[in-house]
């Protein structure tokens, strides 16, 4: 990021970060999000990903950048009335959910390691740094049948290969244990 910053400075450019998962990155790197943000002229933060707000994103930048963005938003009809309730959810996301991300990451690591103990599932657990786990499946695994059987038990997965699993505040360590046990019986 520092090298990118130096490059844009040398060439009179601006640098934007699509920070949809910037808090996940900060927690995984064990740094304050400011350490990431300081390299960029502007960035967005998604409040509804790991931060668990029902909706919302923030656009951050200089005062002149934000004023221009507001003007452009109004020109195309953007904006919301009575957005205070959503702002309250966003505030809770930033003040209470950031700490939850470490638990989500630990649960993802547990899931990755557990999936490696399920026949036909393979995960490179070293690649799991945040709350996303990709599991590759052997040809012998009928993921469509497994998805149907899991749905009977109230567990929803989207059948694909690889299967993408995402942990979040509504997925507990116990939920992971239940999923792993069910997968072992279905494979």
From TrEMBL:
What's the subunit arrangement here? Homotetramer.
In this chain the Aromatic amino acid beta-eliminating lyase/threonine aldolase domain maps to: 1-136
Q: What is its EC number?
A: 4.1.2.48
Which Pfam families does this one have? Beta_elim_lyase (PF01212)
This one is known as Low-specificity L-threonine aldolase
Please give the Gene3D superfamilies that the UniProt record associates with this protein. Aspartate Aminotransferase, domain 1 (3.90.1150.10), Type I PLP-dependent aspartate aminotransferase-like (Major domain) (3.40.640.10)
Q: Which cofactor does it need?
A: pyridoxal 5'-phosphate
Q: Which UniProt keywords apply?
A: Lyase, Pyridoxal phosphate
Native source species: Vibrio variabilis
Q: Name one GO molecular function term.
A: lyase activity
Q: Which taxonomic lineage is given here?
A: Bacteria, Pseudomonadati, Pseudomonadota, Gammaproteobacteria, Vibrionales
Decide whether keyword Signal is in the record.
no
Name the family. Answer: Belongs to the threonine aldolase family.
């Amino acid at each position: 990021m520092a090298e990118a910053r130096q490059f844009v400075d040398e060439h009179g450019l601006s640098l934007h970060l699509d920070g949809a998962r910037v808090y996940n990155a900060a927690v995984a790197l064990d740094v304050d999000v400011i350490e990431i943000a300081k390299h960029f002229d502007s960035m967005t933060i998604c409040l509804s990903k790991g931060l668990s707000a029902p909706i919302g994103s923030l656009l951050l930048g200089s005062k002149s950048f934000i004023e221009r963005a507001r003007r452009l938003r109004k020109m195309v009809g953007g904006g919301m009335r009575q957005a205070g309730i959503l702002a309250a959810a966003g505030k809770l996301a930033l003040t209470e959910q950031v700490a939850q991300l470490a638990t989500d990451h630990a649960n993802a690591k547990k899931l990755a390691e557990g999936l490696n103990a399920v026949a036909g599932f393979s995960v490179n657990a070293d690649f799991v740094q945040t709350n996303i786990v990709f599991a590759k499946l052997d040809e012998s695994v009928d993921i469509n049948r497994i998805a149907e059987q899991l749905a009977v038990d109230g567990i929803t997965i989207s059948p694909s290969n690889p299967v993408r699993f995402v942990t979040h505040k509504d997925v507990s360590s116990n939920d992971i244990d239940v999923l792993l046990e069910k997968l072992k019986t279905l494979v």
